[in-house]
Design goal:
heterodimer; A: alpha/beta; 5-stranded mixed β-sheet; 30 strands; elongated; B: two-stranded antiparallel sheet; 8 helices
């Protein structure tokens, strides 16, 4: 029996106890003024007891009053008897246990919501009914067949947990086609994708749980700068109950120019990595994930990454009296010259006056080494070498980007003996005059000529050469230290990616930074969403969207599926009123006859 | 303006009535003649024997009847006076409607006497007497008549042949003494016994604390149908005892239930 207002029962009990107490309490004698007492004194008057209580005597009118109050109080509690037998004798309950069921919606995982619905269904079964419990994701597993034991059914339902695989309703459909008869009712409890399943075989009843959260999306983007280029790793996750998932992921620049694109297919909820390499990193990298034309499921997820154009490079310059090089360095954006022997500098520019520190702790640009040192072997020096074109291979090709080598004139240059690590990037008929390569993991550039003994400082591409060398020598940016679930301190970010760092719940949120590293989605199915030109952040590790208000479906079973019961309020209230009328009539008749 | 104590039609009806007990009627009945033997025919008063009385005046028949020595006293003939003694004790005022009914009865009796040319002497709770010969003054006085807060006692009256009407409930343990006193002052006494049933009117059963209106005494009872019936029986027995005593004393007894109409009561009084 279900009680809609249990507190009315408490009130009723208190009222009944009060009535009983009142009945047992001896009433106070009423004062009546009479003409004389001496006639009364001739009568044998019953002596009044001193105790305030009277002996309980069964008085049927009092019992009737108690019954009236009990009936009215019971009616106020709105009791209802569960209706059994309305469900068909054989019921199939299919519970989605795909990865999307682990999603927490409004604080309740979808799997828990599904279990609550399943428990309610089992409780509503007729005594003679049998239930078959099925869990499905990519496949269908029959957990219990033709089960009569309700306790065991509840236990089996409690044991269903979401798994890290995608769901496939086609499998459930096939299973239902083979196993379920047309007289059976199949209750499918899952997230919204279940609604897409056509009603073909057994009598389907879709009981959706959870919100309409997207089950796919970009969950992380990592941009790694190496010595020669940029590597972009995009992590894309998919889940849900779709039989298959196909997405096109693309990267474009700020102007919408397509840079890379690929098609990704999922057959499970395993996250996929999409990697591509960029020779030049655009100022804005727009990564978009969109459905294929054959995929009918709506999807909207994209991601914008903006390059860091303000990264500062600390240069330790130790080249003596050269005035052209410092001027060129200062003309470059984001380059800061530091004091000599600054161990925190990103690179060292030296002319081999001092000893080169070994092992290397930073990138080195060695200018005009006059003798063999720890890095390079100098064989001889020649006068006015005539520069020859050189096929330069990556990654040193970028050193001469935008530089016209054939117009370069050198007064005097040394001839280098290329080491195993060195790749020449400037040579003449006499030999190699400049090399570049990685030594102990650090980039090294050697130019065996004095800048002042060339026409470089007078050329317009001199700052560009310096920029190329600086770019080459700048150490790769640090690997992402951000982990999923970690709170990222963010600077103030302007358009197009505003960041909400404070959620209504008070937790910290982080989405994307316009800095080194970007994106980190806190957990499953969360991240940055743009809805109506507003960006919504995610709470790292909380797996709930912060500002997206999604309606929570009512967990109560709809009336056609499960009647709540027969209300007894009307009958109890009627009995109470009839009893009240009877009590009033008896009281009136008693006084009248007296 | 308050309603008049008696309506015009009631007064008109009362003016045509005659009391049986009238001062003039007594001498007219025997005319002061003397019998050939024994006592004469002058008006006499039958009263209890007192010390100093002539033993020859003992009425042996009355003594045998009353079980106490009774003597006969010759009264002077006095015509045209009706004495009305009203019990104004608090017990008469327990019910305001009953008290108003009593005043109407007293006023009606006075009107009948005044209409016959008699004088009306009224005694309330003391020995003081108020005399009336005019109907209008009499009615005004009756309209303002009020009860006494203290216990009532029978006034000290001189023995005479004037008829006397006693109106009261006699709800006192010494009620028989009151009747004896009433009978000892005149030979023509009428008792209008006020039979109030206020206690029986208590509708609900339960525990009650009864309070005596005159003495203030209290008595706790558990009233139910049985006790109510017992009290009714006791009261009826007492009424019968009062009536018997009045007959023994030569007093005419008129029961006055408070719900009886005034005309009905007066028809019984003047018959």
């Amino acid at each position: 029996m279900n009680l809609l207002y249990p507190w009315a029962g408490i009130v009723t009990v208190i009222l009944l106890l009060t009535m009983t107490f009142w009945h047992l309490l001896r009433p106070r004698a009423r004062t009546q003024r009479v003409a004389a007492l001496w006639l009364w004194r001739t009568l044998p008057v019953e002596q009044r007891a001193m105790r305030p209580w009277v002996a309980p005597q069964p008085w049927w009118l009092w019992l009737l009053r108690l019954a009236v109050v009990a009936c009215i109080g019971a009616a106020a509690m709105a009791p209802s008897l569960p209706v059994v037998g309305t469900l068909p004798p054989t019921v199939l309950i299919a519970i989605d246990r795909s990865a999307s069921m682990a999603t927490v919606v409004d604080g309740i995982p979808r799997s828990q919501q599904a279990k609550r619905l399943a428990h309610a269904l089992v409780d509503a079964l007729a005594p003679e009914s049998v239930v078959t419990i099925v869990a499905f994701d990519r496949s269908v597993e029959i957990l219990a067949s033709q089960l009569r034991d309700r306790t065991l059914a509840h236990t089996i339902i409690d044991g269903i947990e979401p798994r890290a695989v995608a769901g496939d309703f086609a499998q459930l459909q096939r299973w239902a086609q083979l196993s379920a008869s047309s007289r059976q009712v199949l209750y499918v409890i899952g997230d919204d994708d279940a609604l897409f399943v056509p009603n073909q075989h057994a009598l389907w009843r879709a009981l959706p749980v959870g919100g309409n959260a997207a089950n796919q999306g970009i969950t992380g983007v990592r941009v790694t700068r190496t010595a020669t280029d940029w590597h972009v790793d995009v992590r894309i996750e998919a889940s849900g109950s779709a039989p298959s998932l196909s997405r096109i992921v693309s990267a474009s620049d700020a102007d919408g120019q397509l840079i890379e694109a690929a098609q990704l297919d999922w057959m499970s909820a395993t996250p996929q990595q999409w990697q591509f390499t960029l020779a030049r990193v655009p100022s804005v990298l727009h990564i978009r994930l969109e459905p294929t034309p054959a995929d009918a499921l709506a999807f909207d997820d994209d991601f914008v990454w903006q390059a860091d154009t303000n990264a500062q490079v600390l240069v330790d310059l130790a080249v003596g009296d050269d005035v052209f090089l410092p001027a060129a360095l200062r003309s470059l954006p984001n380059v800061t010259l530091t004091d000599t022997d600054n161990t925190n500098s990103d690179l060292l520019i030296t002319d081999d006056v001092a000893a080169i520190p070994t092992p290397l702790t930073q990138g080195v640009w060695l200018i005009n080494p006059v003798r063999t040192n720890a890095l390079i072997t100098t064989t001889t020096r020649i006068e006015a070498p005539r520069i020859e074109p050189l096929v330069v291979r990556a990654p040193t090709a970028n050193l001469l980007r935008d530089i016209d080598v054939m117009q370069l004139e050198l007064l005097r240059a040394g001839v280098l003996q290329p080491a195993y690590w060195a790749q020449p990037w400037l040579q003449s008929s006499a030999g190699v005059h400049a090399v570049a390569g990685m030594v102990d993991g650090f980039p090294v550039v050697v130019s065996a000529f004095d800048i002042r003994e060339s026409n470089l400082p007078l050329r317009s591409d001199f700052p560009m050469l310096v920029r190329n060398i600086i770019t080459y020598l700048t150490p790769p940016m640090r690997q992402s230290v951000w982990q999923t679930g970690e709170v990222i301190p963010l600077a103030t970010i302007n358009q197009p990616m505003p960041v909400l760092q404070q959620q209504p719940s008070g937790g910290q949120a982080a989405v994307v930074a316009v800095g080194d590293w970007y994106v980190l989605r806190g957990a499953w199915q969360v991240g940055a969403y743009r809805i109506d030109d507003r960006w919504y952040a995610v709470t790292i590790g909380d797996a709930r969207e912060s500002a997206v208000d999604r309606p929570m479906p009512d967990l109560a079973l709809p009336a056609p599926v499960l009647p709540s019961g027969v209300s007894m309020t009307t009958w109890l209230g009627l009995f109470g009123l009839l009893g009240l009328l009877l009590e009033r009539g008896v009281t009136w008749y008693t006084r009248r006859s007296t | 303006m308050d309603d008049p104590l008696l309506t015009a039609s009631e007064i008109q009806w009362l003016l045509r009535q005659r009391l049986r007990e009238r001062g003039q009627a007594i001498p007219a009945r025997d005319g002061g003649q003397r019998a050939p033997f024994g006592r004469g025919l002058e008006p006499e008063l039958l009263r209890r024997y007192q010390y100093g009385d002539d033993v020859r005046r003992i009425d042996w028949a009355a003594t045998l009847r009353m079980q106490r020595p009774m003597v006969r006293q010759t009264l002077p003939v006095a015509a045209g006076v009706l004495r009305i003694v009203v019990d104004v004790s608090p017990s008469m005022y327990v019910n305001a409607a009953h008290w108003s009914h009593l005043r109407r009865l007293v006023a009606a009796i006075g009107v009948v006497a005044l209409a016959a040319g008699d004088r009306v002497d009224v005694y309330l709770g003391s020995d003081e007497m108020s005399a009336f010969v005019d109907v209008s003054r009499w009615l005004n006085w009756c309209a303002t008549m009020s009860q006494q807060p203290t216990s009532w006692r029978f006034p000290a009256l001189s023995a005479s042949t004037h008829p006397m009407v006693l109106c009261g409930d006699l709800l006192h343990p010494a009620w028989s003494d009151v009747l004896t006193q009433a009978s000892s002052h005149t030979s023509q006494t009428v008792v209008c016994h006020w039979q109030s049933n206020d206690t029986v009117d208590i509708p609900d059963d339960g525990e009650y604390q009864l309070c005596d209106s005159e003495t203030g005494e209290q008595l706790t009872i558990l009233l139910d149908a049985t006790l109510r019936a017992r009290y009714q029986h006791v009261r009826q027995s007492w009424y019968a005892e009062v009536q018997t005593t009045c007959r023994q004393l030569g007093i005419r007894y008129v029961a006055v239930p408070p719900t009886t109409a005034l005309m009905t009561l007066m028809a019984e009084v003047v018959q």
